[in-house]
Amino acid sequence: MPSYLTEVGRILALDVGGKRIGLAISDPAGVLATPYETVARRGIETDISAILTVVKQEVVQRLIVGLPISMNGIIGQQAKETLVFCEALRKKSPVLVETWNEQLSTFEAETRLREANVKPSRNKEMLDASAAAVILQSYLDAFR
Questions:
Q1: Using CA atoms, how far apart are residues 38 and 36, in angstroms rounded to an integer?
Q2: Helices (H) and strands (E) in the chain, counts
Q3: Is 111 a residue whose pLDDT tops 50?
Q4: DSSP 75
Q5: CB-CB neighbours of 130 under 10 Å
Q6: Which pLDDT tens digit goes with each residue over 5-18?
Q7: What is the CATH number of the domain that holds 127?
Q8: For residue 106, what pLDDT is reported?
């Protein structure tokens, strides 16, 4: 296991969308991802400031940003916009910012919410934070 997963601190994952950014956070041991909150998009500087506030409050040591690569490996428009966001975030962030393939994370989050008798179409904020948790759990599991 990489040493950064055993250090004190948490990992924060982002599911960057056009209207909202879903956030999920790990436990300090880097084992479990939990939906955290959703940040309404208000402009890149405001969005980054909101994320960095969470980084400070929760003693986050690493940011993971879901990168929506298509099933055939093509980087589409949303992925390009996410990469632009990541670059701006890296310039301001005191912690490492990484991307992680988020293929099917929203679909999986929708499935999990439906299994919990929650309607994803009526709970967009919960869906976005849950998608971020799927991304983060995938990342954490890859290093176990």
A1: 7
A2: 4, 5
A3: yes
A4: B
A5: 29
A6: 445 469 999 999 99
A7: 3.30.420.140
A8: 64
